[in-house]
Specification:
The protein is α+β, with helices and mostly antiparallel strands. 56% of the residues lie in helices and 10% in strands. It has nine helices and four strands. β2, α9 and β3 form a beta-alpha-beta unit. α1 packs parallel to α3, α4 packs antiparallel against α6 and α6 runs antiparallel to α7. The termini are far apart.
Length: 285
């Protein structure tokens, strides 16, 4: 057998082993709550993505984390020292990890398990892609997902405290203003009207010194669920590009993709509805 054929054969075997590994761990019964279940599902998805790119070491890492979560012994977010990161990635990732750990240390894993898991998986995805530093779009997608999930998590964590009158009042919950950009059928292009809405959101964010901005992508129910998830991501990405083009810092922006879930107007499956084809820009200030 030639060297080329041997390499092809080895790659095929590795692919089969990776597929078997994720399939086996995906079937495990999860011992835990929403946090453990979310980590289990999220890490399986990351492992499958890495195996599909022939990245066996990272695929194995994510499978091991999925297994640990299923056993009720979830790992925390990856340490920065575990990856060889360039300075341009190390600083924002370090700040992001501190932010995530602050939430987890405050008990978010139990109180808001699903959101905590999504934020942690997005962080580890960002870490892995940043170390490779080969696919800017993948880095941006994981980073934006992290910021979006963290904005949702921190918003859910806030609860006004009951305090004695002699004590200082708790800090006010972040206020939120929403701006909606609508899209044409099967389109991810920001229209002239949509660009005007983005401009309004940017002006508001700058005037009110926004603490975070998260962008949620939506579709109507026409088409398959998988296709709509991709279309919602494309729409959200188009709006993020418009925001950064207007000098909004990337570190302020998070992205959440709902696809055909969380409809503005409830409709039957495969129903076209213009008001559901949208991206919502939520400005926290």
């Amino acid at each position: 057998m030639s060297l080329k054929l041997k390499l092809i054969a080895l790659a095929a075997v590795a692919g089969l082993l990776g597929a078997c590994s994720t399939a086996e761990v995906a079937k495990l019964k999860v011992n835990g709550g929403a946090y453990e279940k979310g980590l289990h599902q999220g890490y399986i998805k990351l492992a499958d993505a890495e195996y599909a790119e022939d990245d066996w070491p990272d695929g194995d890492i994510f499978v091991d984390r999925a297994r640990a979560a299923a056993m009720g012994k979830p790992t925390g977010p990856e340490a920065l020292s575990a990856r060889k990161l360039k300075p341009k990635h190390a600083k924002p990732l370090g700040d992001a990890r501190k932010r995530l750990m602050a939430a987890l240390d405050a008990g978010s894993g139990k109180a808001h398990g699903a959101l905590s898991a999504k934020a942690q998986v997005a962080f580890d995805c960002w870490m892995q892609e940043a170390e490779e530093d080969m696919q800017p779009r993948h880095i941006d997608a994981c980073r934006n997902d992290f910021y979006g999930q963290m904005a949702l998590l921190e918003g859910a964590m806030y609860k006004p405290a009951t305090v004695k009158s002699a004590m200082p009042a708790p800090p006010a919950a972040p206020r939120k203003a929403a701006f909606t950009v609508y899209f044409g059928l099967d389109s991810a292009k920001v229209s002239k009207d949509g660009a005007a809405v983005v401009s309004q959101a940017v002006a508001f964010a700058k005037k009110n010194k926004a603490s975070n901005i998260y962008v949620t992508g939506h579709t109507d129910r026409a088409g398959s669920r998988k296709y709509n998830e991709k279309l919602a991501m494309a729409r959200a990405s188009a709006v993020v590009k418009s925001l950064t083009g207007m000098k909004v810092k990337k570190g302020l922006i998070g992205t959440v993709v709902y696809g055909e879930d969380n409809l503005e107007v409830q409709t039957p499956d495969n129903k076209k509805e213009g008001r559901n084809r949208r991206v919502v820009i939520s400005v926290l200030y």
